[in-house]
Amino acid sequence: MLDGAPMLLPRLRAVLCELSLVHLYDDQHLWLDVIHRLEAEGLRTWAVQPGFTDRREGRTLQLDAISSGHERDHGTAPRRCRTLTVRRGG
Asked: How high is the pLDDT of residue 14?
């Protein structure tokens, strides 16, 4: 998804990504790869929320992260913003 949005990313104030801590899909990038990619695009992690947890083990498998590029302009996150949501369907 990020590969197809290079012209769109600079126009967004925030991006919500579903990040996997373990491999759940074929050929997927893990959370740290995606965080580094977003940082290379000028977006910084703003907030992290639990996503999917294995109930038996209590292990978090996925989380949602909001990355904001707004701080590069004003130093604070916007109250309202257009958001590109990146999720891998299953």
From this structure: 83
Q: 39-73: per-residue pLDDT in tens?
A: 888 889 999 998 999 999 999 999 999 998 755 55
Helix (H) or strand (E) holding 36: helix 31-40
Q: Dihedral (C-alpha) 3, 32, 63, 22: value to the nearest 10 degrees?
A: 100
What pairing do the DSSP bridges indicate for beta strands 44-54 and 83-86? unpaired
Position 34: which residue type? Answer: V
- Total number of domains in the chain: 1
CA 47 centroid distance within chain: 9
More confident residue, 61 or 14: 61
Angle in degrees, CA 81, 37, 21, rounded to 5: 95
The pTM for the full model equals 0.70
Distance CA 85, CA 14 (A): 9
Domain carrying residue 80:
2-86
